[in-house]
Structure formats: C-alpha cells, structure tokens
Amino acid sequence: MTARPIGLFGGTFDPVHYGHLRPALEMREALALAEVRFIPAGVPPHRDPPAASAAQRTAMLELALQGQPGLCVDRRELERPGPSYMVDTLTSLRAELGDTPLCLLLGSDAYLGLASWHRWQELIELAHLVVMHRPGWSPTQAGAGAPARLLAQRGTDDATALTRHPAGAVLLRAVTQLDISATAVRALIGAGHDPRYLLPDAVRDYIRAQGLYQN
Ligand code: ATP
Known about the structure:
This protein is of the alpha/beta class. It contains ten helices and seven strands. Helix 1 links the parallel strand 1 and strand 2.
C-alpha cells in the first residue's frame, strides 16, 4: 500500500474554532496524512439541530481553512438527505477512494461514546480510528465498555500500520488541547461578548456580518 492516509474529521462546526483546527493540523503533520477533510454534519443524529445553516457552517469552515494546504471541506453529509451517519459517509468515501487508508479522527470524548453511533461496529472495518486525546489521558479511561474492548483488540502504537492497511486499527495520539467548545463560543456571543482568539478572525467577522448566535 503506497497511498498516504486521508484524515476525516466530522462534526457540527457550529462554529469551527481553534479547538478543531489545531488538532487537525497536528494530526496531518504527525501522521503524514495526505489531507484532512472536515465533514460538517447535515442533520447530526445525536444532538439538537445546529444554530447556523449548512451553508453558513460550510462558509465558516472555508474561511477557517483558506490558505492552509492539506485541510479541506467535504460536503457529502450536507448533500445527503436524512441523518448524517458516519457509517454511510465512510461507505461512500470507501467506494470513491478504493484502498486508500482512511483515518477517522475523533476526540477522546467522541471515542468513549462510540457505541451509541449507528452501526458503530462497521466503522473500524471502513477506517482506522485515531483518538486525539489530551496529554496525560490514559486509555484506562476508556473503561470496561465497548471502546475499551475495541482498543484492546485493535489498538496499535505503530503509526505505519495506518499506511499498510486501509482500515482496522485504533491509534491514540496526544494533541494540544484547547479548552474551547462551540457551545461556549455560541453562549459568549449570545451574551454580547467577543469570541476573538477562540476562532479565526475571518470566522468572527463572518459571524458578525451574518448576525449569528445572537439571542
Ligand atoms: P458543541 O459545543 O456544539 O458540541 P464542539 O465544539 O464540541 O461543539 P463539534 O463540531 O461537535 O464541536 O466537534 C467535532 C469534533 O471535534 C468531535 O470529534 C470533538 O470531539 C472534537 N472537538 C471539539 N472541540 C474540541 C477541542 N477543543 N479539542 C479537541 N477536539 C475537539
């Protein structure tokens, strides 16, 4: 296998912030990913509908990623009707990309909740799972449940395993943690405060121009 792996970063991105951007860039560099695709969810199955429209969330992502090689937006979940299940997204990417290794990038919280995802057991057959965790986080925090068992069965420390197989491994990677959430950014703006330095200036300007997140 020679193709460089592609990273996939799903989320609501309502709005995108540095807590998404910095880990994605670190993963691209640490794992020599060909690219990281940000995949905004159209209809997120696990949560309330986003405050910003699909077009607005995409526009903010494009502004945030402008000029950064190797980071891009993939719109397939916005173009698909119904709930945005990751298993469907990975299936369509796999059909397009053949045997190219795919790395689904997940925050450690998302990994711990994996067993609640639609047809979650199929995800590992379609992609590697790369768990981005805060320095010092221990896999024992994965507990005794399904994510811990998956880690015991499929876990590897060897990043080259990601290039040798199209899917199937779980890799843990420490990333710089920025304690930023979109929920907190929305609340800040709703309370009339300035979100500057939590997200790129171009995204802040767009939020202002569109009057987003104001109560
Ligand atoms: P919200 O507060 O609206 O739930 P969020 O900021 O958590 O949003 P999402 O779009 O839901 O952002 O997250 C997408 C992905 O980004 C998830 O895998 C999540 O674990 C990860 N993520 C979100 N914020 C951070 C952060 N500060 N550091 C690292 N990963 C993050």
